[in-house]
Description:
The protein is an alpha+beta fold. It has one domain (2-131): Alpha-Beta Plaits. The chain is built from four helices and five strands. The protein has helices spanning 17-33, 55-67, 103-113, 118-131, and strands at residues 2-11, 37-43, 46-54, 71-82, 90-95. It has a five-stranded mixed beta sheet, with helices on both faces. The chain is globular, with a radius of gyration of 14 Å. The termini are far apart. This is BLUF domain-containing protein.
Amino acid sequence: MNYAISYVSTVASGISENEIENLLKLTSSNNNQVKITGILLYSNGNFFQVLEGEKTMVTDLFEKIQQDKRHYNLIPIFKKEIEGQKFDTYENLFLSLDAAYNREELDYYKSHVEKLDPSIRNSVNYVLENFS
């Protein structure tokens, strides 16, 4: 049985967009290496993340994330056991007011959300819709 955790948080002041882009690249590389799948989105000073994989790995990673000083106001959306993994890989997206909004990219991530357990799907869709 796999485990999934999702949360939203606020980026700490003083973190540059360049630092956030570097964080997204590092996170993607590290999580794909250890077979943690999911998404990390950044938009307008906030993070939204879904992590899934082997329970111990996901919960250990989440403990580290909670201690990370680059964000605060971390609000868990769900923490639960899941059957299989709903995401193929771990990916991220930087949504910025200065960047061209790409609805197709967000729709791609939302298509993975449709695979989630119905009891949490609506909450995650609501966050995603209002996140960008």
